[in-house]
Design brief:
Length: 512
């Protein structure tokens, strides 16, 4: 089986922030989990480099759009490895291969009769690169996302006949209720379609920073149609000499934030239909990370720097927090205070301390050897069906709920330590069997949850599995990470080695 997951491609008009990290981490969790399932995975991310937002930002910075794109694309490229994200390719929409493929696809759309020349008038947000309908305008005449005054634009453009796909899009949503998730976003997209579709600008005649229109050199393609095709065009050149479209297209999962819902859930499927291309299986629309009541945005100045967080706490801590504290798919507030609480209570205490205590007891009471005895059936029963449930939830894009399923077992293992009190069992020779069953059960329980947690906290999971005897783990397809080994009792450890604290507690800040 194959699994293709993408992030939206990120605008290069500013440096990356936590909101970008959020989507990339979510996609990586999915990619890693599907590799553990033995599937052929392709994970794509990249940068959206054309259009008016980039041109305006470049002008303000006193550089050319190409110079700005080159500078900020490198920042986004650097973000993925810092997040420990395992993307298979990083696309730039300024790549000549992408430009050529966009021209080919959109020429096909024209040849199929879905392009015509016309005059466009409307309220326009240059930062969104989007014309706004009356229902989308707030506070008199402002963009609901960037809160800036809209401008009235009038220009002759080539139009994409979106209106021709009204019935086909309604049929798509009726026949494939899982095309857009969660349900609230499906409803929103369908409502937009049912309100009546108008033809939309396919090209811009006033801009030069974009993909040239092959049939009219005075135009470039409107940035959204250039960008929306990246998920398809990347497969034509991501691996030199290979065409990956037969293997990975149509894609299984596209992750986007809700501010670009209209483009990905209405414009994009219509565009693919117009080009006679298969549609993706699912577009998952997540909410915003909020600070001070607003989406994190460089233009609003309310951002947290993921690089700073990682420098202090490590990438695993950030990955865990973003998908633990905010239910994936919904809006949610984030803060440094909440992050530090999660780190202390759950990563350092619940998980890190559980692992450390168990390993130290095995070293102290059994010289590091894990007793090869029957495991506690009561604990085993509480792990029944866990692999299937986690896989089901990740498959539905419910990453926070999947993480909670694993964390229920982490908390249960902690409670089990308190119930059995192995330090007391060790003092009573008559209860040697109870001690050995307890230690073996704890070691196996920790191994199981760690295999499942690998998608979220890969670095620390690898370290702990190595201490549990799994050896060096080269990648997500290592035998020790195979999803079938996450069944309780499937591969009990035989010996452990000492390990440094997985999530060291942070020293308090000095008093002012």
């Amino acid at each position: 089986m194959s699994f293709y997951v993408t992030t939206p491609i990120y605008y290069v008009n500013a440096a990356p922030h936590l909101g970008h990290a959020y989507t990339t981490i979510a996609a990586d969790v999915m990619a890693r989990h599907h590799r553990q399932r033995g599937e052929d995975v392709f994970f794509l991310t990249g940068t959206d480099e054309h259009g008016e937002p980039v041109a305006l930002a470049a002008e303000a910075a006193g550089v050319t759009p190409r110079e700005l794109a080159d500078k900020n694309a490198e920042r986004f490229k650097a973000l993925a490895p810092v997040l420990n994200a395992t993307n298979d390719f990083f696309i730039r929409t300024s790549d000549p291969e992408h430009v050529k493929a966009v021209q080919d696809v959109l020429t096909k759309v024209k040849d199929n009769g879905y392009v015509e020349l016309g005059l466009y008038e409307g309220w326009y947000c240059p930062r969104c690169a989007d014309f706004k309908s009356e229902s989308e305008i707030v506070d008199g005449n402002r963009c609901p996302i960037h809160l800036i005054e809209l401008t009235w634009e009038q220009e002759e453009n080539y139009f994409f006949k979106l209106s021709a796909f009204q019935e086909r899009l309604e049929a798509l949503y009726a026949e494939q209720p899982g095309f857009v998730t969660p349900q609230s976003r499906y409803n929103e997209a369908l409502s937009f379609i049912k309100s009546g579709l108008n033809d939309v600008s396919l090209t811009r005649g006033k801009l030069t920073w974009g993909v040239p229109v092959p049939w009219d050199e005075g135009h470039v393609f409107y940035v959204w149609f250039d960008a929306l095709l990246n998920y398809y065009t990347a497969l034509t050149y991501a691996r030199p000499g290979e065409d990956l479209r037969d293997t990975f297209w149509p894609a299984q999962r596209h992750l986007i934030a809700k501010d670009i819902l209209k483009f990905h859930t209405v414009f994009w499927p219509a565009l693919l239909m117009a080009a006679d291309l298969p549609l993706p299986e699912n577009v998952f629309v997540h909410g915003y990370l909020l600070m001070e009541g607003h989406k994190m945005s460089k233009s609003l100045g309310n951002v947290l720097d993921p690089f700073e967080v990682i420098d202090k706490f490590g990438s695993d801590a950030l990955r865990f927090y973003l998908l633990r504290d905010v239910s994936f798919g919904q809006d949610g507030s984030v803060s440094t205070e909440d992050f530090e609480k999660r780190y202390e209570s759950e990563l350092a205490n619940d998980y890190g301390n559980l692992a450390s205590r168990t390993i130290k007891m095995l070293l102290r009471y059994r010289d590091g050897d894990v007793p090869q005895v029957d495991l506690d059936p009561a604990i085993a029963a509480e792990f029944d069906g866990l692999v299937e449930r986690v896989s089901e939830l990740i498959g539905a894009g419910e990453l926070t709920q999947a993480l909670e399923e694993v964390w229920v077992r982490v908390r249960r293992l902690n409670a089990y330590v308190g119930e059995q009190e192995p330090w007391k069992l060790a003092k009573d020779e008559a209860r040697t069997a109870d001690l050995e069953r307890t230690l073996a059960t704890l070691a196996e329980g920790i191994r199981v949850v760690t295999v499942l947690l690998h998608a979220w906290i890969p670095d620390r999971a690898d370290r702990l599995l190595a201490a549990l005897g799994a050896g060096e783990i080269a990648d997500d397809r290592a035998p020790a990470l195979a999803i079938d080994t996450a069944r309780f009792g499937a591969a009990p450890p035989t010996a452990v080695t000492d390990i440094d604290p997985l999530f060291p507690k942070q020293a308090p800040a000095p008093a002012a």
